Prior knowledge:
Elements: H1 2-8, H2 65-80, H3 85-98, H4 104-109, H5 120-136, H6 143-155, H7 162-171, H8 178-190, H9 194-206, H10 213-225, H11 229-241, H12 248-261, H13 264-276, H14 283-295, H15 302-306, H16 315-328, H17 332-339, H18 358-366, H19 371-383, H20 390-400, H21 406-415, H22 426-434, H23 438-450, H24 457-464, H25 471-483, H26 489-498, H27 501-507, H28 512-529, H29 532-542, H30 548-558, H31 561-566, H32 568-580, H33 587-599, H34 603-610, H35 617-631, H36 637-649, H37 653-662, H38 669-681, H39 685-695, H40 705-717, H41 721-733, H42 740-755, H43 759-772, H44 779-791, H45 795-809, H46 815-825, H47 828-842, H48 844-857, H49 861-868, H50 877-890, H51 893-902, H52 911-925, H53 928-941, H54 947-959, H55 980-987, H56 990-1002, H57 1009-1021, H58 1025-1038, H59 1046-1058, H60 1062-1074, H61 1081-1093, H62 1097-1108, H63 1119-1131, H64 1135-1147, H65 1157-1166, H66 1169-1186, H67 1190-1201, H68 1205-1211, H69 1214-1227, H70 1234-1247, H71 1251-1263, H72 1270-1282, H73 1296-1299, H74 1306-1316
Organism: Astatotilapia calliptera (Eastern happy)
InterPro entries: LRP130 (IPR033490), PPR_rpt (IPR002885), PROP1-like_PPR_dom (IPR033443), TPR-like_helical_dom_sf (IPR011990)
Protein name: PROP1-like PPR domain-containing protein
Amino acid sequence: MAALLRSSRLLKFSPSGLLQITCTKRNGPTLGRLYSGALSGRRTGVCARQIGPVTENASRYQASQFDWALTRLDSSVRRTGRITKTLLQRIFHDICRAGSGNQALLLLRSCGSLLPEVPLEERTELAHRVWEKLKELGAQYDVSHYNALLKVYLQNEFKFSPTDFLAKMEAANIQPNRVTYQRLIAAYCQNGDIEGASTILGFMKNKDLPITEAVFSSLVTGHARAGDIESAKNILSVMHGAGIEPGPDTYVSLLNAYAEKGDLENMKKTLEAAESADCSLMDRDIMLVIFTLAKSKHQQHIPEMVERLRHERGYVPDAMNLCLSLITQGQEDTAFHILKTFPTLQSDNSSDSANLGNFFLRHCINMDTSLEKIICFCKELQESNMHTSPLSFTLSCALEAKKTGTAHLMKLFKEEKLPVRPHFFWPLLTQHVKDKNIAGVVEVMKGMQALDVSPDVETLSNYILPVFPSIDAARQALKPSYIHSNSSPKAASVSRKETQSHTLQRLQKNSINAQMARVTDTVANEMYSQDNGSLCMCICVCVCAEATAYFLYNLIDSMSEGQVRAQEDKLRKFFSQLQSKNIMISVNLYRGIRNLLDSCHVPELVKVLNIFPTPQGKVLALENKLAELKAENKPLGLVLKQAIQALSAEENLQRALELKQQHEEEMTAGGYAILINLCCRQNNVEEALNLKREFRKDSSVALDASKYLALVKVLSVNGRMEEAVDILKEMKEKDVPMNDTHMTTLFHALNAVAAGGDIPSIRRLQDTVFTLGLVKPTANLCSPVVTAYLVSKDVSGALEAALECQKRYNHLPRIHDIIVALVEKGETELLQKAMDFVSQERGEMTMLYDLFFAFLQTGRYREARKIIETPGLRAKPGRVQWYAEKCILNNQVEALEQMVDMTAKLFECDRDEMYNYLLRLCKETNNWQKAEAMWTKMQEENVIPRERTLRLLADILKSNGQEVPFEVPELSQPILSLTFPLSLFSCFLPAEAFGMLKEADKKGVALGPSPYDHLIRALLAEGSMDEAMAVKDIAETRVPGFKLTDIASSLLIITQSKKGQVKEALERLKSMLQLDHVPSHLAITRLVQALGSHGNVEGIQDVESLIKSLGTSPNLSSMVFVNNTALAHIKNDDVSSAVELLEGIYTSPDSTNPSMSFVFRKVLEAGNDHAMDKLSAMAERLANHFACYRPASDLFLQLLDMDKVEDAKFMLAVSVCVGKIKNLLSLIPDFAEKELLYPYLMKCHVLDKDLPAAKALHEQMQKEGIVVDELSLKRLAVLYREAGETVPFPEPPEQYARSVYFSMPRPAASLLKPLVCVCVCVCV
């Protein structure tokens, strides 16, 4: 029952998602208020179970895993013509767990030729197992199932008794059909039993069933296998006599008959006959003949057939299936011959072609093909450039399949001078460890010794030591076989490790990461309590020499930046001691360690690390190559760059500079870039700048962004700020592109400066980057400035910097850290200032959460509880998840536990999600006691856990040897359910679900209120109001006191309004309000619009008064009622009342100039010219007499939207142009290009003959210091003369009239044009 509840609670859906628009607020109750972990669906009426974590925007439909598997099976068949046994078994097991016999037909059909990688007998066994199991599960078999089983028998060449098969069908009361008889005939003919086939043929004739080509094709095979090849050939004549033309199937049957005999001559004649009969045989048909030839041991004729392959579209998948079938039948040589015909394998330009033989080699390994053959195949593949590394791939397949004969492959691997790694032996050791087979492990160890392979730490800890009961037992067992060999240095290393039994005991428990984590923890602790000598000794005895690099990486990675800095001296001495032991570190691990140290800003420690020895072979080889090329007077550029790159990887700057000095004339841009980057890494500023100057000689070449940013970082850190800024300017000048990776690099560069607390420098760098436009401001890139203040302990400055970033860039970086610092310092005034600002910019709820997390972080749990218990506060899943993940990452158990406890009564809080966070942390800390306590608390809270939560808790308890107090759900839960409510909402569309509901109601099945409500909402969302009301009636009879929810009621109002049922919709609204339910914003809007379109003025007034009487406002604009009231008047032919109403709105002293575009649009759509004339006159009157330009602007834009351009030009008077330009200036008060805008405004004044306004504008331009252009002066002078006044300035000559516009700055013109083109389209 509990499992049922867990499943059913997640099968929820919401049609409300169909009514939402992006970036709009959602009104009314959401599904999250109804149950924990709400989920909206993309499709109406469908929602799968929610398995993963619920997020704030969790609204996407999730297809069930079972349906996905079936889809994948079908896709695989369509795409490749085959399926894998693993996929088929997975689906079969899912069906068995679901307890359902559905999809039996699909499964049965998949047990035949669709499994070319599976032997015939195994296919048949699988089909029988599917048949019996699904029958137990209640599958109702019909004739199609029996026919599918017959087809599988034929494809698998399974010998059975057709009479017994018919008897079973009769016993099951299943009547055979024509297909059944055809396949029974084929079964007889497959065994050469013509008499039996004739008997079935007689049944068909008696039942007047048609004899098709399939029957004749089977008879061809039957006669041939009976030894009567002539009768088989004569079947074609019989077909002609019966009026049936032989098709490809018949010719293929005859070809196969000859192929079984090895009769190549008659095969050719049959092919010619088919060709002359215009019967085209496809590649797939020829492949069937090739398969028959191979099975019949007539391989000598196969090349003849291969030549007839035309490599049609789809050839490769068909040929792959043929190869797989041949290998399964033991015909590897023929399969390899087919493999070599693959057209893609012969392409030298295909990057993927070199590995297309993988499927062939893998299947050979799986089918236990002899290693001698496989090795021959590998050699030929490599020699013919068909595969780059066939031997390596074959070995990996053999190890993966746990084949015992891999020793020979490894030996050959060794002979080819390829490295044999310890992990190659893991698959061989796995089963021995699982079976506690000490002898098997020792035997594998002997094989490793024979190949001179030493087990590493992971091999010892995970695959060798666990099989032994103790370290002493391991020592005794391994001593004679491996460890006694002191002649080997690696054996001596293992012997040294034997002396450290406590270390081996730790290593034997966990994987390499866990081992290193534990050892790292031990050493990190000892760094604070022991001297460096004991520390170094601890390291040396804990890990072997080849694992030291891994240990070092894990050690540094486990320490915070502060810990690394605090222990810098100890680490430096520690590194020196390791170097004295000549410990070698690989280049990749060296880079990883160096990057970790770089991020901790410890340049002195990096220098110590730089002298660690690394492999020198590559550099030496490249230097020798350089010497050879120089002696031969050949170009050195490429090899020189490679040598510098290798030296850079080893951090050998001195030698790299020497090479550069020796071959300076051969240096390329790439070589300089590598050297510059190396100097930056080693903090060698002067050398980096020298190289940059030399590089700059070629001005046509630019460094990439990463090199530039490395220079910026090293210059900034060393106080060379001017030069760093110059580098940034050069990046802008050379238009160096920046991607996301470079932005991250820039962030680290800025953070490196901020870590030193150099506030002026970081501010200048940040301002330069943003001013130049190298990148767009982000929260990450804004944060280093705040970091600099925090590092300097200047919390006030950090707050001011964050507030400035919000004002300038709309980002509030590191506000959590700032608030935490303010709380810790007790800066109440600054804290209040921060909270006020956050509340104003981001909202009160965001502010409360910021304060809540800060109190949690600082351990002020009482204050945090007060915050989270603020009335009206609701859960914000995204914010809660952020802090929970932060606690998990930083191992803050107490803070997370407190948050879980405090949010117990938080509105819309997903309690299962909260406990899941805490259980994840319990798993990280391996604290099963805490996890068990959480299980008790969940029961106390009556929390219904999701399956993933139960599995997580069970995993914690099991891993600690504790009993699991509940039934652990399977990972893949059954999708198909016989429970009606589940199948109703997870598998069907609303119309189908409605039909099922009616059938269930007839049978007296009663559901809970939730399924009824969900179906009502789904039906209403697609406009099916009658069906929705029918469901409502059923629900009211089955569930006492059933009422529609707010969402359903709002959807009903919307549907009624759309259908014109305004009276019913108004009554529904009133009934909702009487129950203190709040309708949605959309429902009110649609109802008011419907009332307006019906001319119901009183109804609109009623709705308005009802809404105003609500205690909480639905955030509706008052113009919803005004506009629709005006439309209602117009509908009633009372245009004067509409105009009077609208004019009163715009002439009111406190008018906000709201939009009336909706009115204009509806009137224009209705084609009401009388009303349009009145409204246009009103708009013109408001513009000319009241300087109110909003109606005219709305009308103008609506005319343009409806392509009424001429009407728009006629309507738009000059005064309106002036008003609109002034409106633009009011909207953009800080518009910088006023010297471009004012000429347009002057033109409007001149055309309007408004000399006072023109004079005022001229004076304003002079006061603002704006140079009046010649064209404006010319226009103003004309206006003075026309008014009879003296022009008070020199009048420009006439030739300026048309030329001055073109002297305007183009960027400014392009910026202004879209703003003013509407305003002055008539004027200009």
